[in-house]
Fold:
Amino acid sequence: MTGGEIVAFDPTRRRNARAIVDAVALGWLRPSDLVLDLTHKTGRFWREWRPDPAAGGRLVRSDLDSSGELWAGGHLDMVADALDLPDVWRRRADVTVWDPPYKENGSGGSCAEDDGYGVADRWVPRRGLLAAGVVSAVSWTRSGGVVLVKCQDQTAGRFHPQTTFATVAAELAGAAPIGVLHVAGTTRPQPADGRAQRSPRNRTSALMAFRVSGRRRVDVDPWGVAVTVERHGLRGLLGSLPRRWEPPSLFASEGERNADG
Ligand SMILES: C[S@@+](CC[C@H](N)C(=O)[O-])C[C@H]1O[C@@H](n2cnc3c(N)ncnc32)[C@H](O)[C@@H]1O
Structure:
């Protein structure tokens, strides 16, 4: 924070838990909220702030927990695939949080974060899960509620604009972006194989916030989104968006002027 003002990039914001505190200050989260954390893991997000049961708030800790360790360790209230929650969750949460494994590559444990993000020593496709989870998170959230998504624009072989994927997926499902809080971090050096650097290294990740609209789409299948995105990338996702209007031609008026003489 600078002089009481929350800024999108604050170099002292180095933890997700701090971004959550700032999200509260911005009104994206409130003590009385029913907060559904789809990817709770051990709950590092909630180390500094949690919804307040005394105010009617509740944090529901959910995760896929493929190894069963999180449940065994008492970290969860629910074991579930974020794309396939029980139907009672439809349009239920005030705030839904989606922090999927988003790092696209790893270097065999040379980075402490890799283990935390389940990253293998190779390129791992993440964009389908990211986009499908955003669509699902919107469906678990009440109209007017908020979806918080954690991801990172990053280079792995080529540039992966994950924040764009998240925004387009949210728009597809009927949620509009309301802001982003960047979390400062570190990145390891590129492999020393003599290749020239072609894109800037990104030392931040993004906690993105979306407001769910009352005019959401209910027919978006998250698995369909995952497959489309893995196969066709952003173009596949854009192809799924309803065509509500045709952009006016930039040259139409010029043509008219020319026709006039
Ligand atoms: C980056 S970690 C989340 C860290 C967590 N936000 C924290 O503060 O500790 C990603 C989590 O996503 C979970 N995950 C991966 N795919 C999932 C899915 N389809 N549904 C639910 N959780 C999933 C993993 O089990 C892992 O715990």
